[in-house]
Automatic annotation (TrEMBL):
Keywords: ATP-binding, Helicase, Hydrolase, Nucleotide-binding. This is Superfamily II DNA or RNA helicase, SNF2 family. GO terms for molecular function: ATP binding; helicase activity; hydrolase activity. Residues 811-966 form the Helicase C-terminal domain. It comes from the Bacteria. Residues 502-689 form the Helicase ATP-binding domain. The lineage of its organism: Bacteria, Pseudomonadati, Bacteroidota, Bacteroidia, Marinilabiliales. Coiled coil: none annotated. It comes from Sunxiuqinia elliptica. Transmembrane segments: none annotated.
Length: 975
């Protein structure tokens, strides 16, 4: 006999009516239940898809399934006995109801029969069958309103026929939506819940008192009109097809990120696209009249509107809309991009009927378009920047945004109270410019030397001006003719350096010539001064320091067109070198040493400044005579070894920077010794404000570069200073250098050193003269050599004779100053001396600086180890060598500088020393410096050597050296 799957409506001991799946077989006059079908039975049964789905749904609320889902207990009996009422009402009953509803809907398809199944019996009869119609029943709420109040009833009809449920014995099957059985027929509704139907089982209508009528209309009746068919009397319900619009709201999401939220407005009510309602209702009350407007969702129109926004570049993100690519931006950038999108598409949105709103923000943001109009004009020393910003109808001077841009504040309040978000590009483009700009009215003024900051912003600028400025950095392409009477042949890089300084002069910029030591910074500077020299007044025919009358004559006939002298400030040890190089290279220029006792002659300083071309002075003199010097203007203010002003808090810096000069220049091989603050001090002296104030420079450059090695800040700083700093290393200009370059570096004595020297010189001269008179020249050789040697030692350093560690030496200071420069430039140097004690003094100073070094004297035992340490260690840059120990047998080609710190009249020994570095295998150009103390026996010997070139040969090779030198020459040496 064939088995049939049916659904039985039976009563559960706890839950009431439930559907269960049974297999039945046909008997003569009844049906016998063969099996309650469980999920595990499905593989053995040949059921169709519809039947299998019914079995699955029924088993979702089997006892076992309910215990597993809602209880930790394993025993179902205990679970049902102790079931909490709230758990049943709020969770279990709705859970069962949803599956019962799905089964009822499947039964409407008429593919499976439904029967009443009594718990105690296992047989079914045809009378137990429940008819399931294919159509839904309809429930209509009927409202009647009059002066006494409002009442409503429920009219039910099925297939067009009314169905009266009052006082009927109905069996409720599902609650939400409702389905019930009456007279073996199941009635199903689309939406109405059983709760709304139950009151009318024993009532004809429900009365709403007048007192609570407003509340009922605003809540219950409004929802009823929205969700169910309604017949109304005493108030109106209008079905509306128009009056719909779209809103695009900018507001924060749950993560407080700004997004676009689309909303659809039907009448006065707004709804999100994901709202599941198909009908919207608005209630309007005018006087005592209630009027409902009922809108049915237009899904096609909504889809078209959303599609239109996507065509404008928006994409959907979890119910919100964003311009493409916004996910990775921070909150302010997102907000700016949203506002920018609105501004760009405002007209299109308006034409499409889409309104823009802002919600849940503390501020109201401007969606107006933003335009920045910049015009730049050039004056003698300044760029005048006229910039205006337009936010829609508002025009605002750009200067008002200065605080925002410098402090990274992107919100700017407009006159109407709205807040504009400033574009990030404005910050990137102008934050490096504004710190240097000076406000004047509504304009910004930027000094000419900041032209690098404007190169990218050429709108409104005379481009020919920039083309002229480019000459500064393109000296090779724009050479300047050398002055005709320069007494030197400049190398090509020196000509370029001179042209660079001249172009700076033309544009009234200061510059830093930062070539390596030995490349001729002095010569390049003197060439510039000679090129710029102007004729002096004819009336000033003599030195004003020598004729008071001439000084007075000048005062009576002053002429503002006279070019004042250039003031060159340097360490004391360099005065003599500058004086010599002026005489050698630019003899047509008059130079005055404003140092020491010379200053006493400078009572008429104005006359001196007018008469002389160059005034040489020292940093110490400027500090001491600042009050006098500051009253005068100089043509050029030039600082040699300008690292002397690296400390901006020092008195030297404070006084030097306040001196008056039309033009400024600094010379140094080491513009940065310890920190970028060294650079700031020198650049600020040259072009005040070029790098901003100290606080700005530290924040913007020192901290990010020195602590974080920020490449962007490094490049920004290079861009600012590039036109004003010219640095060439020896390696870069090697092709222009001879294999060997020799220079004499003259050094002045310290005050106490000079006194000691003159005192000892007098004693030695008397002793030698007495010995010559008594013994003759030939027998006085030893006494002469001893006396001259003692004077040499005093010229080097008094402590070599006196043993006074506190003694000072001008030569020692100059040697150390030069050595310090070479260490900063990372060169290697050989230092030769004929006195081991001199090397020991340098050794102590070197150790105090913690520089690596090697030393080779007659006492050194492991020569090869010492030599290898110097040759192979790149950090070991100093080799102290005694002439006697290092004259032969050494190959020191890693060095490219040689210091001979106590030259004498034996060039053969010096040449042997030089050949330690300048020999086969040397791939670098070698610089040799001879340090000679001026006004000493060393300088006298140097002059004598120049006059008598054979002197050294005779002196060294002769058994009686003083046959080659006369008594008169000995006296001259000691004069």
């Amino acid at each position: 006999m064939a088995l049939e799957l049916i659904i039985g409506l039976t009563e559960h001991r706890t839950f009431g009516n439930i559907f269960q799946a049974f297999l039945i077989e046909k008997r003569v006059s009844f049906y016998s239940i063969a099996k309650l079908v469980k999920l595990h039975d499905l593989p053995e049964l040949k059921l169709n898809q519809h039947q299998e789905e019914l079995v699955r749904l029924c088993n979702q609320y089997s006892d076992e399934a309910l215990v597993k889902k809602f209880s930790k207990q394993k025993e179902s009996g205990k679970f049902f006995q102790e079931m909490d009422h709230t758990l049943f009402q709020d969770h279990i009953s709705p859970y069962i109801d949803q599956y019962m509803r799905q089964i009822a809907l499947l039964l409407m398809q008429q593919k499976t029969r439904l029967f009443f199944k009594q718990v105690k019996y296992s047989n079914l009869y045809d009378e137990d069958r429940i008819e399931v119609p294919e159509t839904f029943s309809l429930a209509t709420f009927c409202f009647e309103r009059n002066d006494e109040g409002t009442r409503y009833s429920l009219a039910i009809e099925h297939e067009g026929k009314p169905l009266n449920i009052r006082n009927k014995n109905l069996a409720i099957v599902t609650s939400q939506p409702c389905s019930f059985i009456w007279q073996n027929k199941m009635f199903l509704f689309r939406h109405i819940s059983a709760k709304k139907l139950l009151p009318f089982l024993d009532k004809e209508f429900i009365q709403i008192p007048k007192a609570v009528e407003d509340k009922y209309f605003e809540t219950f009746i409004l929802n009823t009109v929205k969700n169910y068919p309604v017949k109304a009397s005493g108030f109106t319900i209008e079905n509306c097809d128009s009056h719909k619009s779209m809103l695009l709201s900018m507001e924060p999401n749950l993560q407080m990120e700004p997004v676009f939220v689309p909303r659809f407005k039907y009448g006065e009510a707004e709804y999100l696209p994901n709202n599941k309602s198909t009908v919207f209702v608005n209630l309007q009350k005018q006087g005592d009249n209630y009027h409902f407007k009922k809108y049915r969702r237009d899904f096609d129109w909504e889809t078209q509107q959303l599609q239109f926004l996507k065509q404008l570049g928006l994409e959907e993100k979890t119910g919100t809309l964003l311009p493409k690519g916004l996910d990775l931006l921070d909150q302010t950038d997102r907000l700016f991009e949203l506002l920018k999108w609105i501004g760009k598409h405002k007209q299109e949105l308006h034409e499409a009927g889409i309104d823009i709103q802002q919600n849940q923000f503390e501020k109201r943001y401007s969606t107006a378009t933003q335009d920045l109009d910049v015009e730049i004009k050039t004056s003698e020393d300044w760029f005048d920047i006229y910039a205006k910003v337009r936010f829609g109808d508002f025009e605002i001077p750009f200067i008002k945004l200065k605080r925002n841009i410098l402090n990274g504040i992107r919100e700017f309040e407009l006159p109407n109270g709205e807040v504009a978000i400033l574009p990030k590009e404005w910050f990137a483009e102008y934050e490096d410019l504004l710190p240097f700009a000076k406000q004047e009215g509504q304009a910004l003024k930027l000094r000419k030397y900041h032209y690098q900051l404007l190169k990218k912003r050429l709108k409104g600028i005379d481009k020919t001006f920039f083309q002229r400025l480019e000459k500064i950095g393109q000296t090779a392409a724009h050479p300047v003719a050398l002055p005709a009477n320069i007494q030197a042949t400049l190398r090509s890089y020196q000509e370029e350096g001179f042209s660079w300084m001249y172009h700076l002069y033309e544009h009234q910029f200061g510059g830093c010539l930062a070539d390596d030591m030995g490349l001729g910074k002095t010569l390049q500077t003197l060439t510039l001064l000679l090129k710029l020299k102007r004729m002096k007044r004819q009336v000033l025919v003599t030195d004003p320091t020598e004729s008071k009358e001439q000084g007075e004559l000048f005062e009576e006939n002053s002429d503002e067109q006279i070019q004042p002298a250039a003031l060159i400030v340097m360490p004391t040890s360099l005065i003599h070198n500058w004086e010599n190089e002026i005489k050698k290279f630019v003899p047509s220029m008059k130079a005055y040493k404003y140092v020491g006792v010379q200053r006493k002659k400078a009572l008429n300083l104005k006359g001196i400044i007018s008469y002389y071309d160059i005034i040489l002075t020292t940093y110490g003199t400027v500090r001491n005579d600042y009050e006098l010097l500051k009253e005068h203007e100089f043509f050029y203010l030039i600082l040699d070894e300008s690292q002397n002003i690296k400390n901006s808090g020092s008195k030297t810096y404070q006084t030097i920077t306040k001196l008056n000069a039309k033009h400024r220049l600094v010379l140094t091989g080491t513009p940065i010794e310890n920190s970028l603050s060294d650079l700031w001090s020198q650049i600020n002296f040259l072009n005040k404000g070029l790098l901003g104030n100290q606080a700005y420079f530290k924040r913007e450059f020192i901290t990010p570069i020195e602590k974080k090695s920020d490449p962007e800040k490094q490049e920004k700083l290079k861009t600012l200073i590039r036109p004003f700093v010219l640095r060439r290393t020896k390696e870069e200009v090697a092709r222009d250098l001879p294999p060997l370059t020799e220079q004499i570096r003259y050094c002045g004595m310290s005050k106490e050193q000079h006194k000691s020297y003159e005192r000892e010189k007098s004693i030695i001269r008397n002793s030698i003269l007495q010995n010559i008179e008594k013994e003759g020249m030939e027998k006085s050789a030893i006494v002469i050599l001893q006396g001259l040697t003692k004077l040499r030692q005093l010229a080097n350093h008094p402590s070599m004779v006196q043993g006074n560690e506190q003694a000072e030496s001008g030569k020692f200071d100059e040697i150390f100053r030069s050595l310090k420069n070479l260490m900063a430039e990372k060169h290697k140097v050989l230092i030769f001396s004929s006195f081991v004690s001199h090397l020991e003094l340098l050794k102590e100073k070197i150790e105090s600086e913690k520089w690596k070094y090697s030393i080779l004297t007659g006492r050194t035992t492991k020569r090869e180890k010492v030599i290898r340490a110097f040759q192979e260690d790149p950090e070991n840059r100093i080799f102290l060598i005694s002439l006697k120990a290092g004259g032969v047998g050494l190959n020191l080609t890693s060095a490219d500088y040689v210091f001979i710190i106590d030259p004498w009249w034996n060039p053969a020994a010096e040449n042997q020393a030089i050949n330690r570095a300048h020999r086969i295998g040397q791939d670098k150009k070698v610089f040799v410096y001879r340090f000679i103390t001026e006004a000493s026996i060393e300088e006298k010997i140097q002059l004598l050597k120049e006059r008598k070139s054979t002197l050294a040969e005779k002196f060294v090779n002769s058994n009686n050296p003083f046959q080659a030198i006369t008594q008169k020459e000995i006296i001259n040496l000691l004069s």
